[in-house]
Write a structure and sequence with these properties.
This protein is α+β, with helices and mostly antiparallel strands. Helix content is 25%, strand content 28%.
């Protein structure tokens, strides 16, 4: 089924291909989940670098299995941007990758910091404590590497990103969402994708070579939780002291400084529901 929008596939591919030879861009009108599709391909051994964008996802996923549904749209005006970037990657340490991705996306959406796009550990972008965007990172071991037992072989990385471009219904959400057109009224999903793609790939490649360290101070400048009392999903409460050089969240509790690194732990400023 064809798309109703022009997604600047050639423009994006031309900007990214020098960084990722063989890179392609695919746009579809509807899919269950762009992340799910790229993970299916990777497990089947199809692992070229690709960006897959969908105008609508019917079974989009967020972190911890939470649903991410595309906002409703008119025929020519996507109210949300949902896409996944897939590429082979072999960093020395995967810790902090979602934070580095968040830094890249936040700086593309709000380069001046005027809109105060903040980063909520480990994978959300917030504006005034309202969710603007979410990130879902998954990896797959290509079939050939699994068969040969190559533990250190590059894994296939899939980065899924969902961004609210226009207003969306807040029904069923813990807090009303934020959206990009609140400060960029003329923004469109295809234009935003074209802005994000090449900087995102460059950031991922920097992370592969150098880890989270080059992103740590940039994350700190947009840290939504630092200096706030937070509650972990296990009920413990403490003062957030920012993010460590390895990407761990530092929370000062009654038991001392806790280094939170598990993707299975949710964190909220105290008083906000999980």
């Amino acid at each position: 089924m064809g798309t109703t929008a022009a997604w600047f596939e050639d423009r994006i591919a031309a900007a990214v291909a020098p960084l990722l030879p063989g890179f392609t861009v695919e746009a579809v009108a509807e899919i269950d989940s762009t992340n799910t599709e790229l993970m299916r391909r990777a497990r089947a051994g199809h692992t070229p670098p690709v960006l897959l964008v969908a105008e609508r996802q019917t079974a989009g996923r967020g972190r911890l299995g939470r649903p991410w549904q595309s906002a409703q749209q008119s025929e020519d005006d996507a109210a949300s941007l949902t896409f996944s970037l897939g590429l082979p990657l072999a960093p020395r340490d995967w810790s902090g990758l979602s934070l580095a991705v968040g830094v890249s996306v936040a700086e593309s959406l709000d380069p001046s910091g005027h809109a105060k796009v903040a980063l909520k550990w480990p994978n959300d972008l917030w504006v005034d404590d309202r969710k603007l965007a979410g990130i879902l990172i998954e990896t797959a071991m290509p079939h050939a590497a699994r068969a040969e037992g190559l533990v250190a072989a590059p894994r296939y990385l899939v980065i899924g990103i969902g961004i609210n471009i226009g207003p969306r219904d807040a029904e069923g959400m813990r807090t009303p969402p934020a959206w990009l057109r609140q400060w960029r009224p003329g923004a469109t999903a295809p234009e935003v994708l074209a802005e994000l793609a090449a900087p995102l790939v460059r950031s991922v490649q920097i992370f592969e070579a150098e880890g989270f360290v080059p992103f740590a101070e940039r994350f700190a400048a947009r840290d939504a939780l630092r200096g706030r009392e937070v509650q972990l999903s296990d009920g413990s409460v403490g003062l957030c002291e920012g993010v460590a050089w390895g990407g761990e969240l530092q929370v000062r509790t009654a038991a001392g400084l806790q280094m939170v690194s598990s993707d299975e732990v949710s964190v909220r400023p105290r008083g906000m529901a999980f």
